[in-house]
Specification:
Chain A: It comes from Mesorhizobium metallidurans STM 2683. The structure holds two protein chains of two kinds. Chain A is of the alpha+beta class. Chain A is 27% helix and 31% strand. The radius of gyration of chain A is 26 Å and the shape is elongated. The two termini of chain A are 51 Å apart. Classes of the chains: A alpha+beta, B mainly alpha.
């Protein structure tokens, strides 16, 4: 049982900073996903947690114990690697036994030939075999114990890697993109299996991925990372519906959120591409904003007007249950993407002019520096006003 | 069919002319009493082979060769691996260490043998001078039948070390870092455990290759024997290829020499087969 406290972690490779002031508290038994594009430092953070990498600054505690400078072996963590990192010369049984042998047998007992004749080796060996068998059965790989990794399929190897991590019952599971080498179908299946494993074991999971669907479906909380910074840590629902930062809003969600540059006018109105939009909150006129609108926040309306975007259909993507309609709206840089019900398909043709309405509460407002402006969030509005005045 | 034949033909022809015919000729000559330059020969059956195995000096030569190989192969592998590990674990001067350890392999052994001869000279040689300076017993290294074979083996190790080291270095580079990380997490973080859990097994294929190549090279040792000892003192440093050379080209007993060559060939083929069949399966983990 272990909570994890990550405090002000800094890491640079040479002069290149990789992690900047990352702090994160993970509760005991929580499933936290580090999500971000490749190169954002998420794997480095995981490796620092594991003890495979040493941080430049800051501190890590696992279960109340500060583990800075403690070797991976003594941290009570297990890790599943993207490549699985199974020992190719060992059978599945031997692979899974390694962590137990290293912990339960002394270095003399592990010696080849001599070791097995020392007192106790045999008893411990039998115990290890029993534990390996039990874990293998729990994962449904009991019949594979005699095989070598080279003879296994990707999914089976993945399970063996999980088994090797699980067998010694660690307090924390670290997973570094464990599903990215699997095909799409298997990935969905293993996603469910890992989630189930977490529920069953009840230990802390830290999971690294660049795949937002993995992060959204499995996690209790998602930590979105970009350029070595932790942008937001929240539940998948909050991350999607209530992002703190423009970069988070843009990273999460497929198709991508529509970002429209707007200028605030009087009376709580913003102007986008010549149309007035009512915006929530109390924001000083004259400043520039970005309005984020999720594709599914749009609905079709009959005619143009205020709070309505009008444009010509450029492309229609039929996804089965939904339609993604790309709309060229005059005055906007990128096409606006709307997600509409598939039943609308017969009514929409390429080149046709469409009017899209959006409710004010579905608008996400971002300041020019990217941070979120919340409706009735007087603090941020005031800060913004003060900033404006300074300028 | 015609196209296939004409494409494979030249290579097949060369293989026959350059490889199969000479091998066949060796076995054929081994069954005759032909002497080099003689105008006539007669078929003697297996008489040459019987003589070869009854011959005291051939048996000495065979035993010497086996002893030599038994010292050179493990010596080269263990030292080559140790040096590769040391170079790999250090951060600076890697290229320099690689180069100086590889030099002996590049150099002509005949020339190097002369340098060794100077080093091992009983009175003015650096080795004996050093030993004498340290009040240790000296020896006439190349003229003493107890020391000559081990000394030749040491030279053999010295020569092959660079080759083994370079291959081991390449092998070490190809071990995925993930495996070492996994070993760290699993608790195999002491050097001996890392070596046994990851490094040595992952170097299996390279070690196998080094083993076979060095063994073949050791079986073929000729130049150091020719330059330094001529097989002496007595037959103490005589080895297969030297015996073959002496019988065929000094004593001109070509038929007898051919039967020695046949025995030698069988050993080489056997070694290659061991690589192809038995051990390949054990070191490639698929």
């Amino acid at each position: 049982m272990a909570a994890i406290t990550i405090e002000k972690i800094e890491k640079s490779f040479g002069a290149t900073p990789v992690l900047r002031d990352v702090s994160l508290d993970i509760a005991d038994g929580e499933f936290v996903t580090l999500l971000g594009p490749s190169g954002c430092g998420k794997s480095t953070l995981l490796r620092i947690l594991a003890g495979l990498e040493v941080q430049t600054g800051g501190s890590i505690a696992i279960g109340e114990r500060v583990v800075d400078g403690v070797r991976p072996k003594r941290r009570d963590v297990a890790m599943v690697f993207q490549s699985y990192a199974l020992y190719p010369h060992m059978t599945v049984q031997e692979n899974m036994a390694v962590p137990l042998r290293m912990r339960r047998l002394s270095s003399i007992q592990r010696l080849p030939l001599i070791g097995r004749f020392l007192p106790g080796t045999k008893a411990v060996g039998a115990e290890i075999e029993k534990d390996v068998m039990r874990t293998a059965k729990a994962l449904g790989i009991g019949h594979l114990l005699g095989r070598k990794p080279g003879q296994l399929s990707g999914g089976q190897r993945q399970r063996v890697a999980v088994g090797r991590a699980m067998v010694r019952q660690p307090a924390v599971f670290l997973m570094d993109e464990p599903l990215s080498n699997l095909d799409a179908k298997l990935r969905v299946q293993m996603r469910a299996e890992i989630k189930e494993l977490h529920d069953r074991l009840g230990v802390t999971f830290v999971y690294v991925t660049h795949d937002q669907s993995e992060a959204m479906t499995m996690s209790d909380r998602v930590a979105v990372m970009l350029d070595g910074e932790l942008l937001q840590v929240a539940s998948p629902r909050e991350i999607y519906a209530d992002p703190d930062d423009r970069r988070v809003a843009e990273f999460i969600g497929s198709p991508k959120i529509n970002m429209l540059e707007a200028r605030v006018r009087d009376n709580g109105l913003a102007e986008i591409a010549g149309t007035s939009f009512a915006i929530p909150g109390d924001i000083t006129p004259g400043i520039s904003l970005a309005l984020g609108i999720r594709p599914e926040a749009f609905h079709l309306v009959e005619a143009g007007g205020d709070n309505i975007l009008t444009g010509a259909v450029r492309m229609i993507e039929h996804m089965g249950s939904d339609l993604y309609v790309h709309l060229a709206v005059p005055g906007t840089e990128h096409p606006v993407i709307a997600r509409l019900l598939a039943e609308r398909a017969p009514q929409i043709a390429s080149g046709q002019t469409l009017h899209l309405g959006v409710k004010p509460e579905r608008l996400l407002l971002f300041a020019a520096d990217g941070h979120r402006l919340r409706p009735h969030d007087h603090a941020s509005a005031t800060v913004l006003r003060m900033k404006e005045r300074v300028q | 069919m015609l196209a296939a034949g004409s494409l494979a033909g030249p290579a097949f022809l060369l293989l026959i002319v350059l490889f199969f015919l000479p091998v066949f000729a060796v076995f054929a000559i081994a069954l005759t009493d032909w002497q080099f330059g003689a105008s006539s020969l007669s078929f003697v059956g297996l008489a040459n082979f019987r003589e070869v195995f009854a011959d005291e000096s051939f048996r000495a030569s065979l035993v010497n060769t086996i002893v030599y190989v038994a010292i050179v192969v493990p010596g080269t592998i263990v030292l080559g691996l140790a040096i590769a590990l040391l170079i790999e674990s250090g951060k600076s001067f890697r290229a320099f260490y690689r180069a100086i350890h590889f030099l002996p392999y590049m150099a002509t052994l005949t020339a190097m043998a002369i340098a060794w001869e100077a080093l091992l000279h009983p009175t003015i040689g650096l080795v004996n001078q050093t030993l004498a300076g340290l009040d240790l017993p000296t020896a006439n290294w190349l003229r003493d039948e107890n020391t000559v074979l081990p000394v030749l083996a040491v030279i053999g190790i010295w020569q092959n070390l660079g080759f083994a080291m370079v291959l081991f270095l390449a092998g070490l580079k190809s071990i995925p870092q993930d495996l070492y990380d996994a070993a760290d997490i699993d608790g195999a973080d002491v050097w001996l455990d890392r070596l046994r859990t990851v490094t040595l097994p992952m170097l299996g294929p390279v070690t196998m290759f080094v083993f076979i190549v060095v063994a073949l090279k050791a079986f073929e040792t000729f130049d150091t024997v020719q330059v330094l000892t001529q097989g002496g003192p007595g037959h103490a440093s005589e080895m297969l290829l030297y015996t073959l050379y002496r019988e065929s080209f000094e004593y001109l007993r070509t038929g007898y020499g051919a039967s020695v060559a046949a025995v030698f060939l069988l050993i080489v083929v056997a070694l290659t087969l061991i690589q192809a069949r038995v051990l390949d399966k054990k070191v490639h983990y698929q």
